[in-house]
Amino acid sequence: MTDNNVLLSVDDLFKHFPIMRGVLQRQVGAVRAVDGISFDIHRGETLGLVGESGCGKSTTGRAVLQLHRPTSGSVRFEGTDLTQIKGEELRLMRRKMQMIFQDPYASLNPRMTVGEIIGEPLLVHKVATKAEADERVKQLLELVKLNPSFSTRYPHEFSGGQRQRIGIARALALQPSFIVCDEPISALDVSIQAQVVNLLEELQNKFNLTYLFIAHDLSMVRHISDRVAVMYLGVMVELATRDELYSHPLHPYSQALLSAVPIPDPVAEAARQRTILTGDVPSPANPPSGCRFRTRCPIAEAICAESRPEFREIRPGHFVACFFADRYL
Amino acid sequence: MSVQTASPNKIAVINDVFKPSRSLGQEAWSRLIRNKASVAGMFIVGFFIFLAIFAPVIAPMDPLKLHSGKRFLPPPFDQGATNIKAEPEFLLGTDSLGRDVLSRVIYGARVSMVVGFLPTTIILLMGSTIGMISGYIGGKLDNLLMRLTDVIYAFPDLLFFIIVMVALRDSFIGQFMNGLVLLFAALAIVNWVGVARLIRGQVLSLKQKEFVEAARCIGAKDTRIMFRHILPNSLSPLIVWAAFTIPGLIITEAVLGYLGLGLRPATDSGQFFVTSWGVLMLDGQTAINSQPYLLLAPAICVALVVLAFTFLGDGLRDALDPRMRGTQ
Ligand SMILES: Nc1ncnc2c1ncn2[C@@H]1O[C@H](COP(=O)(O)OP(=O)(O)O)[C@@H](O)[C@H]1O
Ligand code: SF4
Ligand SMILES: [Mg+2]
Q1: What is the rounded distance in angstroms from the CA atom of residue A238 to the CA atom of residue A321?
Q2: Within a domain: B224
């Protein structure tokens, strides 16, 4: 990983949540929310991270930012392994990496004004005086296309889309280079989803931001992503450039997700072959042996239950974890 | 990178800019004052606080002065069964020693108000500090503290008060300020556990909230997260808790006074606490048949104050969290 262009490099990341039972709170098992994933993110790019709800996307984002300390693995950010630093050192690193949250209603403190929320990062890191912070808050509000006079108002006075913009302004306050966008548009009205995505894209161009953009279906990340990673039950099953993934998905799970995305052309829509996902996602506390996807996979064979398919580079830059991926090449 | 200003025509003005901005607290207040019972409760509580503070000015007579030859006077408005003639200046009559009942009841408000508010403040500080630490730090410390609250919770309150009062009443601390300090300490020891559990539950749920995570993400330190993010969002249940607990404390003091375990009688009227409603009820019950007002007057005051706080608590609960309407 000597590539200069790599901003973030995640290697063999695990995050298990212990399951405690009984009066004595003994550990009886673990939720294997993230179970050994590796990927790089290049400077200025957007990596889309897609998978059904509960497959570990948010946990990945939080483990990368050290909001959940990883169980094992490394997260190198600009050469520093974040898993090895703590306390003040980690706190200072936080200036460079921020997060935009899924729920615009839960992610803003209801007792603080918009100005206090957006200005807090500046005061916490003492990079601005109170007066400078007020001025910066106004600029940031304009940047996310909200009225600067909103700074004295409280979050409950705003709509979901406006709140999400406030969250974006807070994330931008410290001028980070990397932002985890955890389903920033999933909770929003369809009519304003595009506005928020466009805003994020505009900000990315303006400030050369790098995004890890999480979504639960492939249609939401198509527009903004440079590369797309597909996650299933704590593991990564496919990773490729956007165009490659949408035109030649090699993993049966990616294919299934993609066939859920509507095609605007009705003729093509009617003609295409669909892979419909049946059944529920198994529990991450007790995942299937071998390939995690085998319980729902339409082409599974005996070997899929016995061993775990390697996450291999089947074509330059195209990684997939399936024994039979070559069939679709 | 520098922040550039977006051109004004791009600024989305979706909200009405001219609408006055109100915090959640201000909105709760406006809901509260629309609740008639709560407003009545506030006025009653305010009235008794006023009595307590200005008792020397309001009380028509010295509450300790023995009016010789004027014992057991009935109130002028109700001669009752006695053949002793009422006198107009003693509006509620006199007690067995010839002291003015009205003045004594007015002075009695002092103890009830102080017993209502002061220990509550101590309990809130103590309980929320422990609950906050327990919930935020978690682990073994949390386990230890919560088992301690279980023990205190399981012990019958009144029995505890009686044991403490009987054992320590004659000690130095028991005599300090007519015994009020000992009473406060006993009330605090029993009641902090409720607050601690309440706050701990709040902290545990707020800790999971995205805005707390966002605060950690921007690099806020633990103390800031506790005081700026978690505590302000835990205040509503605390305020409601206080409104429902204060009448409980007032009743406890009255019961202890009635059992003869409350305040010691004051020796001169220069003292702040002259008597309490509980002590007055104890005095009054001896003459319940001939002199019902000796018991009724303080009892009605206790009932009124308790009712007022309950109305206020109901209103506060609805106002602070409209989703809680009609529960408890
Ligand atoms: N703090 C936590 N404690 C225990 N289990 C958790 C925690 N956070 C997430 N999980 C579990 O980890 C799994 C992955 O969750 P998450 O990362 O939120 O999924 P996604 O964001 O893809 O919907 C889920 O089964 C979830 O229940
Ligand atoms: S490895 Fe087997 S079960 Fe897994 S996706 Fe490929 S075919 Fe399906
Ligand atoms: Mg999620």
Answers
A1: 6
A2: yes
**Residue B26 included in any domain:** no
Kindly report whether the global pTM for this prediction surpasses the value 0.80.
Answer: yes
Domain count, chain B: 1
- In this predicted structure, the answer to whether residue B73 has a pLDDT above a threshold of 60 is yes
CA distances from A141 to A101, A112, A149, A196, A329 (A): 18, 16, 9, 14, 48
| Domain-embedded: residue B28 | no
Q: What is the domain range of residue B247?
A: 41-324
What is the residue whose two structure tokens read 């993934």?
A: A245
pLDDT in tens, A266-275: 777 777 777 7
Residue B4 lies in a domain: no
| Three-class DSSP category at A27 | strand
Residue A328 Cβ inside 6 Å of ligand 1? The answer reads no
User: Is A291's C-beta closer than 6 angstroms to any atom of ligand 2?
Assistant: yes
Average pLDDT over residues B146-170: 90
Greatest mean pLDDT range, A225-229, B100-104, B280-284: A225-229
Cβ <8 Å between B12 and A99: no
**CATH number of the domain within which B135 lies:** 1.10.3720.10
